[in-house]
Amino acid sequence: MGTMKYSYTAAEYWQWAFKVSPDDLPAAEAMLAKVREYLPTLDERERWNTEGLLAFLKRL
Question: How far is Cα of residue 7 from the mean position of the Cα atoms in its chain?
């Protein structure tokens, strides 16, 4: 799966778990941790978009 698709999937999963299924939060958090790990490998545009997505999740 591509990095952008994985990032958005992780974000959607985290939002769902946060609202509906707290038992799934640890798995969703692990996915987001993976996203943070590969941030430095992304090109500037993808990194900017992904950082914005992560910042959005922090505000929820």
Answer: 5
> What's the whole-number mean pLDDT along residues 12-25?
95
CA distance 27 to 46: 23
Contact 50, 42 (CB under 8 A): yes
% pLDDT > 70, the chain: 98
What does the pLDDT read at residue 1?
Answer: 61
Please, are residues 31 and 37 in contact by the beta-carbon 8 Å criterion? no
Please state, in angstroms and rounded to a whole number, the distance separating the CA atoms of residues 27 and 29.
5
